[in-house]
Amino acid sequence: MENKIAIIFGVTGQAGSLLLDLLLSKGYFVYGAARRVSNPNLQRLQHNLPNKNFKLLSADITDTSSLVNIFAKIDSDEVEIYNCAAMSHVAISFEQPGLTWDVTAKGHLNLLETVRHFAKYKSLKVFFCGSSEMFGSNVDGDDFQRETTTFTPNSPYATAKLAAFNLNKIYREAYGINTRAGIIFNMESSRRGENFVTRKITKYFGQLYNNPFLPKLSLGNITASRDWTHCSDSVKAMWMTMQAPPKDYVIASGEVHTVYDFMKKCYEFIKDKVEIPLKPLEELYEIDPLFYRPLEVQYLAGDASLIKKDLG
Ligand code: GDD
């Protein structure tokens, strides 16, 4: 039997690289599209580089001609396209809103336009990584966010994701493009970038294990609540939506914790394992306004009952 074919945009990131692991394990042939950067950033997919079912291609989602070049190269009539490319850091989007929009919103539009033209020759399916940040601070009466909750984005990042999410829907309805989106709540793993809060905290406690005299950990708003899922589970959900008719789904765990709770859990995890007793938790961290955002999403809680009902 022939391999199924997939393209992953943003393959060097956390979600892209875990999706690559999943698709290769399912027997796909995968093209990974990555931007050329002067310092190689292939750590998350190093183990897959020798795999004969994986080919790394140079492309940038902000450059439509590079997308056309990729699609023209792929000699298959059926392709699954996953767009995980984004400027994904909410705080940085306030510093670099233009770049955020170029990559996250315009980038997805470039992809949709390219798909629209190639759809005449090939059967293409698209998945877009939308974000729970699109909800902003809006929750339903039961304190959950779901597919029907009104979006009230409050960061440049969230507005860019919402623009792309809406375009994704418009291209599905207007042109019949086989495209769907996940409204994805926070995804975490050991491959998480070190400036996201879970990895920043786990890295700190990992270092503290070896050096109990580390300077304090500086954090921002530790009262924020998030719905965290292991990213391997989230990418599995992405793949499942791709096997079903095109429809947008919340991808979430439904379990909510504060950043402080997360840190406390990490502290408790290493407390009994270290040889030199640790200081009390309250003496190990400090609040630095540098890590506050101009606007904050205080609470995210996903109701994933629709994807559970439809796809199990
Ligand atoms: N990054 C960071 N660093 N966040 C901190 C810190 C800190 O030092 N201190 C507190 N926080 C708080 C943030 O203010 C936020 O409320 C929460 O920790 C989580 O921050 P991040 O881990 O940076 O993730 P995020 O929730 O802003 O965004 C992530 O999830 C979105 C989906 O909800 C990203 O992965 C987005 O790309 C994704 O769309």
Topology at a glance:
Layout: E1 5-9, H1 14-25, E2 29-34, E3 54-58, H2 64-73, E4 78-83, H3 90-95, H4 97-118, E5 123-131, H5 156-175, E6 178-184, E7 187-188, H6 197-210, E8 217-219, E9 225-226, E10 229-230, H7 231-242, E11 249-251, E12 257-258, H8 259-271, E13 285-287, H9 305-311
Helix pairs in contact: 1-7, 2-4, 4-5, 6-8
This protein binds guanosine-5'-diphosphate-alpha-D-mannose (GDD).
What would your notes on this structure say?
This protein has 312 residues and is of the alpha/beta class. It contains nine helices and 13 strands. The strands form four sheets. A seven-stranded parallel β-sheet has the order 3-2-1-4-5-6-11, with helices on both faces. Helix 1 links the parallel strand 1 and strand 2. Helix 1 packs across helix 7, helix 2 packs parallel to helix 4 and helix 4 runs parallel beside helix 5. The longest helix is centred in the middle third of the chain and has 22 residues. The two termini are 27 Å apart. The protein binds guanosine-5'-diphosphate-alpha-D-mannose. The site of guanosine-5'-diphosphate-alpha-D-mannose has 23 residues, from helix 3 and helix 6.
Based on CA atoms alone, the radius of gyration comes out at 20 Å
Nearest-integer average pLDDT: 96
- The computed structural class is alpha/beta
* Biggest sheet layout: 7 strands, parallel
Give the amount of beta strand, in percent.
15-25%
The set of bound ligands, ions and cofactors reads:
guanosine-5'-diphosphate-alpha-D-mannose
Question: Strand-and-helix sequence, N→C?
Answer: EHEEHEHHEHEEHEEEHEEHEH
> How many helix segments?
9
Q: Per the principal axes of the C-alpha atoms, what is the gross shape?
A: globular
Provide the spatial order of strands within the biggest beta sheet.
Answer: 3-2-1-4-5-6-11
